[in-house]
Each structure stands twice: as C-alpha cells, then as structure tokens.
From TrEMBL:
Domain of life: Bacteria
Pfam families: adh_short_C2
InterPro entries: NAD(P)-bd_dom_sf (IPR036291), SDR_fam (IPR002347)
Lineage: Bacteria, Pseudomonadati, Pseudomonadota, Alphaproteobacteria, Acetobacterales
Family: Belongs to the short-chain dehydrogenases/reductases (SDR) family.
Keyword Oxidoreductase assigned: yes
Keyword set, alphabetical order: Oxidoreductase
Name listed for the protein in its UniProt record: 3-oxoacyl-[acyl-carrier protein] reductase
GO molecular function terms attached to this record: oxidoreductase activity
Amino acid sequence: MTGFAGKRVLVAGGSKGIGRSIAIGFAKAGAAVSVCARGAAALEATRAEIAALGVTAHAASADLGVLAEVTGWVEEAAAALGGIDVLVNNASGFGSRDTEEDWAKGLNVDVMATVRASRAATPFLKQSRGSIVNVTSISGFRPSLRTPAYAAVKALLVNYTQSQAAAFAPDGVRVNAVAPGSIEFPGGSWEQRRTSDPDLYNRILGSIPFGRLGTPEEVAEVALFLASDAARWVTGQTIIVDGGQMLG
C-alpha cells in the first residue's frame, strides 16, 4: 500500500501486535505516525522502528482507560505531526470473563478509549476530511461462552462504527472497522496458548480453512486499505480478516 506520503496517522495501542504492524505499515507507506500505549520499552522500540523508515515518529505513554491521558495524547500527537488524517483505535483491555472486573476493562478501554480518542480527533479529522479505522474482532459477530465480555464489547464497536460513519459523513470523514480472527505473533496470547492450552490452540487452528493463524501484517494491510483513497467510497463497514475462521 502506498499513497500516504504527507499524511498524519495516530495509532492507539500501537506498540505491539496488530497495532504495531498497523503503525509500521503506515510508516512504510510514507505517513508520519504517532503511537501510544502504556509499556514504555515496547513503545520506544516501535517509535524507533518508525523513525528508521525516514518519517516523523511520535510516541507517548498513555493509559487509554483514562480520559485525560487519551485526549492529552491526541492533542500532543496532532501538534507533533501537524494535524491528523487517520485515527486507528486499536486499544483493548482484554477483559474476557463474565466478571465485574473484566466488563469494566472492556467497556473502559475497548469502548470508551475509542469514543474518547475519536472525539478528541474529530476537529482535526474534519479539517483534513480524514478517516477512522476501529479494530474490533470476529468475536463480536457470535456468542461466546469462553469470552462473553470481550465478545460483547467488540460487537458494540461494530455498531458504533456504523453510528460514527453516519454522523461524520456530512463532513467527509469516513469510519470503518477491521475484525481480525485469531492472530499469532511473538509474545502474543495465541503464541502463549500454543503451549499453555494446546487443546484450545489446536481447536482454533482446526477451525481455520487455511490451516494456520493469521499475522498482524495481514490485518494491517486491510486497515491501510480502509484508510486509503482506494476505499474512498467505503464507510460504515467492518471487514473480517480471519482466513475463513468464521465459516466453520
């Protein structure tokens, strides 16, 4: 994907996994990129990778469950990059169980971080006629006994993406989402489950027609497409990226 030279991109939850790959993908396509996350070491490593590609790189430590830190990052990033053309909402609290704690994680980070970052970025996106890409999950399309809280908040993001798209269309701002299936990468949850819960890992692996789990780069490429001019007539959509996992 090319055509992002001169564009300004913010990736929330951009230091590891899918978020990192999205940030690196935009940088490779020529965009200036800002990332935020809580872990300082991974955040700095990603910022350095972006800078090494010859584009403006900005990073800020932020707890995306805290309103002031979300809005502070967006405003700081907009100042550092000179505006905002694309906002990617990728943060997750990974609250999965049917407990008060996990529901709070999902609602406060997966949902409200998306709401808060979008609100803070709205004036800049309207000025640039930019776009938002939300990262949800195939879990949001079906019931889950194993991860009910996670599935519910991801379903909420699918609906909220449509509401955002309808609200922002008169201002020329597009909003779409990408819904990954099971994605494996070093240090990620599925790599850990390969050894900690091989029965679950193999059951999921067996549900994917292509016979493997996905990679963060495969999700990133769809996110870049949705933010690009090639998708200029696409808004309010959630694109599933799962190698056919939902077909099983």
